[in-house]
């Protein structure tokens, strides 16, 4: 059953490769992803025991990431059918196949309990994203793809070195040599401190560059800006969570060792630095897709701050991980629609989206309010919990800086989003073929609905899952 | 560890300098490939025979010695370039820096808290030196292909360190990592091809349209 999560999308990818017709091929995506969602739901309701050898196990953290990715991917694949219908001239065979291979790799990240396997899956997600970012086949997108490929490959290679150091620390400490997560957590305190320390630093740099933590985020604005909206949604909502899960696995080991406090301190600083970077670069962005990349840097920072705070903030941080990924989905999909409608993503030309594309404009606006932490949307709840936890722990500096950055980011983002949505449509602007229609509006609308519901009511199973996951990270169960 | 293995490691270190000091891309590709083959053979000299080991040795030699160089040479042919012109860091400075990094790697490795059975081996300094030289090539060159070569050198350095862990790494993980590397180079080759078509050059300093004002 667990293997179906990985094999089904691969089978789907092979199928998309065989379908000769551009229009029909897109339909494979929602079929496979709906089946994937169904399998995910059954596995979360009743997780099977660990595989022999313990390599494959679905724990609470894995469940959270898997569920988030599966929902986001299903919505994106429904959207893809409508989106690709507008772009029938461009061959989409590589796009469809890569999307499904990516789904397979992200599922493998969620279920692997062996750090070597986790690394392989994470590297595979990096590689499958490259053809997706390059979908538009122009000079700008190739530049973005090259930067993304090189920075992420080097980053993930550094993470591999970190894993080697971790394994070596078991040799020096004369422990059983392994990269199995439960064993490492069990022996964490006994590992050789020097090598373990080096391992944590390398892993943080490696996975941090894949997550886009400042100052390792330089590939993000380019890749998010040039990729199609649908790919941006998966990068910002799906891949970020995979890299984050890898970091959480390291966090589990760090907390179990004697170095937990130091590791948390580093995370706290990196998180705040990311928020600061985002606050500075968010202002005066003339490209609204690039702006979303900085918003992603900000929210990765917020989650990292929550991890740094630990204790009660862990629950909030994990909730924010889900909220961010769903809201980013709405932002990228609606902004992809606006991009189609204006054939531009510069704020110089794109104004008054609410008139030209009423649904996408309204969704973009609502998602902007949600992501900046306005009630009654879900990110408000998680951000509020993180701030109150910071002040509750007596960490006033963190709390104050957190609020300051949120305010700056709200202003910076509003100065871009408000004219785009509410401004005057430039007079001499040609109309494009794109009109808001059911296939491209309904998918982000579903996500927006979930974001709204989670803001006022967290279902009991999700609450239990979040508490279990926080307990795995050493939080209060 | 026997003396033959040590000699191979010294050869690996020399190859770093060959790559640092040349502008001819095809020569660099072959040097890196030879280094990859040496790395593939090393485990066979250090560890006793097992099927697991044989599989790893054969696949590394095949991937690093044959498949990856073929992919890169093909990209070079398609892009119709032979040399790296005016790198960010010149060849002489690169060599000097490379020598500096290599000596630092030896000093650094002597201070590391290694396991008793690994003390005094050349593996750790060679790994650190190769990693640093890889970084140097990655940062110092303009052409996309040179950057890929830098990445490969880095990867070789990391792999050298992995030699110490050969018993710890399950065969599936090694094979998976190797497959990821191969696919990575394959994708990079395609991207390079498109860069050269789009910009009629694979000079990455031309990739500057997305710079933040």
Automatic annotation (TrEMBL), chain B:
<dbReference type="InterPro" id="IPR038730">
    <property type="entry name" value="HyfE-like"/>
</dbReference>
<feature type="transmembrane region" description="Helical">
    <location>
        <begin position="121"/>
        <end position="139"/>
    </location>
</feature>
<feature type="transmembrane region" description="Helical">
    <location>
        <begin position="52"/>
        <end position="76"/>
    </location>
</feature>
<keyword id="KW-0472">Membrane</keyword>
<keyword id="KW-1003">Cell membrane</keyword>
<keyword id="KW-0812">Transmembrane</keyword>
<dbReference type="GO" id="GO:0005886">
    <property type="term" value="C:plasma membrane"/>
</dbReference>
<keyword id="KW-1133">Transmembrane helix</keyword>
<feature type="transmembrane region" description="Helical">
    <location>
        <begin position="88"/>
        <end position="109"/>
    </location>
</feature>
<feature type="transmembrane region" description="Helical">
    <location>
        <begin position="172"/>
        <end position="192"/>
    </location>
</feature>
<protein>
    <submittedName>
        <fullName>Hydrogenase</fullName>
    </submittedName>
</protein>
<feature type="transmembrane region" description="Helical">
    <location>
        <begin position="148"/>
        <end position="166"/>
    </location>
</feature>
